[in-house]
Every structure is written in structure tokens, then in C-alpha cells.
Design goal:
This protein has about 650 residues and is α+β, with helices and mostly antiparallel strands. It contains 21 helices and 13 strands.
Length: about 650
């Protein structure tokens, strides 16, 4: 990476930012604050008004696409590749403005539908409130007069109105109830009484649970209002249907709206980057980072503008802030998803992908180890990458699946596994006298378990030593010669000496290694600390290396588990002696086994790389490189 500093004319700012976004190799960063420098104090941030407008346009188009998804669902298309458009089509201003207008119309229709739905709910609530009063042929606006008190209300279902009139005695002769209906809990009543007994009657009613009902703004009977509300509900339904049909009519503009959504996303990215700049009245200042390999292209662009710019290599103290961009080939690039899932390497450190890719792919194949499963992975990878042409992490995932599929097929060929023992079991059902009991193999998980275990741990030892070698080289580059000698070389000598001693060749090398441990463990310690350092080093390294190597036994365990499970399902399918049932049971069981191991092998492989391997040399904590570029969700922009 190189640091970029640029001063250019403010009149060229918008065009230059667009050109930099097209180039896609510059990450615009927050400029360094120079403190009390008067020149720095004169710089100001650009207005964020354009950023707000860009976000509003992006939100509007996103809402319009959601409206289309709701009112005009897309049929099929889930396995279709993203459409490609030329740069001229992508930047077509007329099409962009037309799509924004269509998005506005869709958003308006959606909001109107939402408002109508809210009104519909209110009308339904009013209709439900009037339902108990439909049989009452008394206008709802009926009110008390100077001589008569009139009340609409409810009583608990257990109360008897006639009994209440009896409790009023002679006053009850001046009162009357008209029933509108009842349900399980309450009864609905219209109450009339002479004003002279109103207070006594109302007090008694309230004592028995009377609750007054009001119908504000309603005139006419409940039945008349119900008919009016029913008409309004029907009109509401028709209005919503018309708006929904209007929204659905924009289904043909879906592609244009998606292109517009990607276009607005670029505007937001550019305006967000612009917020990092600093302005004067006539110029602006830009600071950022770009890959050294892109300096020629950047120079060609900037030479076309009246500006001053410089590039510089970052100083070691700047490394924590320098963004990291992984540079890989076709074989190692899919491993980006593994590295990014763990953590990017620190700037100035080691790119782990080329060092990890052979081990990751090989270990995955050893764990799954089946030709049938490998073929499925290869086919899935080819179909998805060529048909759908995914981008980013999804592309890395399926390309990595293809590489691991090749490894799985190769190891499966060595173990003679094709969906377990599917072919021999099928051949036995077709011809009970067949001599085909197993496919040709170099070794099998069930018969050569101990050999596979030893081989797995030997592979683990190779990977651990490789990690130590990488650490050794990195320490030499940093001038940490003694650390490299006492930390890595010492244990290589111990490993070599242990091997020679086990083989009965000589014990001298092992003794030399032991002396190096005694000297190297405490070479920078003082006093009694030298003794504790020796014991600490012995304990930590012996248990650490032993535990790391033993961890690779999972290669054998997963190979054995997958093979046994596949054979169990094949055996279960063969028990009825019917080929049709065998195919159903075997394929269903193998599908389950494949699905579980597809993920399980990835997780265990990831653990071996991130813990046992990376722990020997890897320095993480890198900041991802995020240039101002064109990133799309719905379409791919291609060269004309």
C-alpha cells in the first residue's frame, strides 16, 4: 500500500471523485489532523446535503422494490445470473430519472394503501362496536331533554332490568328499559326515565354495574350506520385494489428499478467518501491509500487534472492504520473467505492463503473421502459459478467447494468409497452371486484405521513444522535471529534427535537438542528465572506440540465416521432385498450424511488452520482495504 495526498480544484471535485470510483483502487481516509496549524484550521468538511439527498433516493428506490415484491411477486428467477449492463446503460441519466419517478409513484401508492388499510381497520372497529345495537330502532343521537333522561349503556349479563325497576318502587313506574341484545358477558340497553327520578335511578344502575355507551358524531339508528360503514368498507377495498393493481403495473420496470437501486448505492458511496475530504474556497484536500501496483493507472488519471499529489510508503508506526488487500491467484483466492472469517493479517505480515490452501484442500478431502460426495461438490461448484456467476464471499465459497470436491474425489478413489459401499451393495442385489464385494482401493477406513491415524498425525506434524519454518523466516526478516534459533531451530533439533533415537541411529542429536533447550530457554532470563524458564519452556512446548499433533487425529475420525454412516444406510437399504427400497433408503441416508459432513469437515478443517497452524506464525488484526469503487447488488457492469 501507498499513502496518497492530493490537492485539486474544487470545481473538479465531483468529476474527479467519479473517475476515482470508476478506477476503484483508492480508499479515501480521514486526513491527519495537524493540530494548531493555521492552514489546517482553514479547511472545512464538505456539506452533507448531497449525502442526505443520495440516501433519500436510495431509500425511495428500496421501498419501491419492496412494494413490487409485495404487489407483483417475481416468479422464478432464483437461479438466474445477474444481468449485465454496459457502463453507458448504467450511467444513463434519462433512464435514471425515469426510474426515480417510477419509484416515487410506487412509494406514493404504497403509502396510500397503508393509509387506506389504517382507515379500514378503524371502520371495522366502528362496525364491531355497533353490532350489538343493530336491533335497536332508536336513533343513536337520542339525548336527554329537560324532562326525560335518556341513556345508552350495558349491564352485566346476570342482572335483570325488571328486578331493578322493582327495587326503585314507585319511581320504577317512571322508568323503562329497551333491550338491544346480549352476549355472554353483558346486555345492551336503552334506558329512559323522568328527570325527577333520574338521580335515584342512575345511582341504582351504577351500583349494579351499569356502564354508559356513547356514539359521538353518529346519527340515525345503528342499522343505518352499519349500512353506511359497509359501503365505506367496500369503497375502501376497491380503492386499495385499484392502488395495488397500479403498483403491480410497474412490474415491467423491476429491472430498471434494480439498476437504479445500484446506481443510487454508488451515489451514496461517493458522497460518503466526499465527507472525508477537506475544502477551501477554491480547492479540496484528499488523503487515502492505494495499492502500489495501481500507481501507474492512478497517475494516468490524475495527470489529466490540474492538481498536486504525492505517494509515499507507510512508515512502520503507521502499519496498524494501513489497510490490507490480499493478492491471490485462482487457487488461493477462494481461501479469502476463511482468512476474512478469522481475521486479516496485520500489514507487513504474511498472507496466509498460499501457505494454507494446499493443507486446507487436502485435509478436507481426507475427512470426507468419498468419490460420490466429491462429484456432487464439483458439479455444484461448476453449476453455480458458471450459471449464477456469484460475487464476493459466495463466489469464494463455491470455488472452494470445487477445489475440496476434487480432493474429496481423489482421496475417495484411494479408499474405494462411492457413497460408502453403494456400488457393491447394489451389485449384490442385482446379482447375489457377484464377486464384487468392494471397489479397488489402496487402503480403507475400516481396515486400516491405525495406519490412517498415524498418517493423519504425520500430516499434522508436517503442517506444524511448516508453520515453524514460516515463523523462522519472518523472525530473520525482522532481525530477531536469536529468537529464531532458540524458538524454532532448537525444537527442530529435538524433533530430529527424537526420531533418530527412536530408530536406534544415535542419541547425540537429541542430547544436543536438550542442551539447546537448557541454554535457549533462559538465555535472556536472570538468576533463578533461568531455572523456571527451562521448566516452563519444556512443559509448554512438549504439551503444546503433543496436543497440536494429536488434534490432527480428527482427520481419521471424520473419515471413519463418514464411511461408517454411509455403509450403515446402505446396509439398511439392502435388508428388504428390494432395489427400489434400497435406492430410497440409501440415497436419503447418504444425503443426510453428506449434508452433515459438508459442514462438519469445514468446521474441523477451519479449526486446524486457525488454531494449530496460524498459532505458529500468524499475526492478525489487519484493516480491510475498502476502496471507493462500484459495488452492485442486482446487476453487473461490463466494459462496452
Amino acid at each position: 500500500m501507498k499513502r496518497l495526498r492530493l490537492i485539486a480544484l474544487r470545481a473538479d471535485r465531483e468529476e474527479l471523485l467519479k473517475r476515482l470510483q470508476d478506477l476503484g483502487c483508492v480508499e479515501i481516509d480521514e486526513p491527519e489532523d495537524t493540530g494548531d496549524d493555521p492552514a489546517w484550521a482553514a479547511l472545512a468538511r464538505p456539506s452533507d446535503e448531497a449525502l442526505g439527498e443520495a440516501r433519500e433516493r436510495q431509500s425511495r428506490v428500496s421501498e419501491a422494490l419492496e412494494a413490487l415484491k409485495q404487489y407483483a411477486p417475481e416468479k422464478g428467477g432464483g437461479f438466474s445470473p445477474r444481468p449485465e449492463v454496459t457502463r453507458k446503460q448504467f450511467l444513463d441519466r434519462e433512464a435514471y430519472d425515469r426510474a426515480l419517478r417510477d419509484a416515487g409513484a410506487l412509494c406514493d401508492a404504497r403509502r396510500d394503501i397503508a393509509a387506506l388499510e389504517s382507515d379500514f381497520g378503524k371502520l371495522q372497529a366502528q362496525q364491531a362496536a355497533l353490532a350489538p345495537w343493530l336491533s335497536l330502532e332508536i336513533p343513536l343521537e337520542t339525548a336527554s331533554t329537560p324532562s326525560v333522561t335518556a341513556l345508552f349503556g350495558t349491564l352485566p349479563a346476570g342482572e335483570e332490568p325488571e328486578a331493578l325497576l322493582g327495587e326503585l318502587g314507585q319511581a320504577g313506574e317512571l322508568c323503562s328499559f329497551t333491550s338491544a341484545g346480549r352476549d355472554r358477558n353483558v346486555q345492551y340497553l336503552f334506558f329512559l326515565c323522568h328527570r325527577s327520578v333520574a338521580d335515584q335511578a342512575v345511582e341504582l344502575l351504577q351500583a349494579h354495574g351499569f356502564s354508559r355507551a356513547t356514539f359521538r358524531g353518529l346519527t340515525g339508528t345503528a342499522a343505518e350506520n352499519d349500512r353506511r360503514l359497509q359501503g365505506e368498507l367496500e369503497a375502501n377495498r376497491k380503492a386499495r385494489q385499484a392502488l395495488a393493481e397500479k403498483a403491480a403495473g410497474y412490474a415491467g420496470e423491476r429491472s430498471a428499478l434494480r439498476l437504479c437501486a445500484d446506481r443510487t448505492a454508488q451515489d451514496v458511496r461517493r458522497e460518503t467518501a466526499k465527507a472525508q475530504l477537506r475544502d477551501t474556497g477554491e480547492t479540496f484536500y484528499l488523503a487515502g491509500w492505494f495499492p502500489a501496483e495501481d500507481q501507474g493507472a492512478l497517475k494516468a488519471l490524475l495527470d489529466g487534472y490540474p492538481c498536486a499529489w504525492e505517494s509515499a510508503d507507510p512508515a512502520p508506526e503507521d502499519y496498524p492504520q494501513v489497510p490490507v488487500k490480499l493478492k491471490n491467484n485462482w487457487f488461493t483466492r477462494p481461501l479469502n473467505m476463511v482468512t476474512e472469517m478469522y481475521s486479516l493479517p496485520a500489514y507487513g505480515g504474511v498472507d496466509p492463503n498460499p501457505l494454507m490452501a494446499p493443507f486446507f484442500v487436502l485435509f478436507y478431502g481426507i475427512m470426507l473421502a468419498d468419490m460420490g460426495y466429491g462429484l456432487l461438490m464439483i458439479l455444484a461448484s461448476l453449476i453455480v459459478t458458471r450459471r449464477l456467476k456469484p460475487k464476493g464471499t459466495m463466489d469464494h465459497l463455491f470455488r472452494l467447494m470445487g477445489l475440496c470436491g476434487v480432493s474429496t474425489f481423489a482421496v475417495g478413489a484411494l479408499t474405494g468409497g462411492f457413497f460408502g459401499d453403494f456400488i457393491p451393495q447394489l451389485a449384490k442385489l442385482i446379482d447375489p452371486n457377484t464377486t464384487l464385494t468392494a471397489l479397488p482401493s489402496l487402503f480403507t477406513p475400516l481396515d486400516d484405521t491405525l495406519s490412517i491415524l498415524v498418517g493423519a498425525m504425520c500430516l499434522g506434524f508436517v503442517q506444524i513444522v511448516t508453520g515453524m519454518a514460516i515463523s523462522f523466516v519472518e523472525k530473520l526478516k525482522k532481525g530477531q535471529v536469536m529468537d529464531a534459533v532458540w524458538e524454532e531451530v532448537t525444537w527442530w533439533v529435538v524433533f530430529l534427535g527424537a526420531g533418530l533415537a527412536i530408530l536406534g541411529v544415535t542419541k547425540i542429536v537429541l542430547i544436543v537438542g536438550g542442551v539447546m533447550i537448557l541454554v535457549g530457554s533462559g538465555w535472556n532470563a536472570k538468576g533463578f528465572g533461568k531455572v523456571t524458564a527451562v521448566f516452563g519452556s519444556l512443559y509448554n512446548h512438549i504439551t503444546g506440540y503433543f496436543g497440536d499433533i494429536l488434534s490432527y487425529s480428527r482427520l481419521m475420525a471424520l473419515m471413519l465416521a463418514g464411511s461408517v454412516i454411509a455403509q450403515v444406510f446402505n446396509t439398511l437399504g439392502a435388508i428388504p432385498g428390494n432395489i427400489f427400497l434400497f435406492l430410497i433408503i440409501s440415497l436419503a441416508g447418504n444425503a443426510l450424511n453428506f449434508a452433515l459432513n459438508l459442514l462438519g469437515c469445514y468446521v474441523h478443517d477451519l479449526r486446524l488452520q486457525c488454531l494449530e497452524y496460524f498459532g505458529k506464525f500468524y499475526q492478525d488484526g489487519g484493516k480491510p482495504f475498502q476502496p471507493l469503487d462500484i459495488k452492485t447488488k442486482y446487476i453487473d457492469v461490463v466494459q462496452e
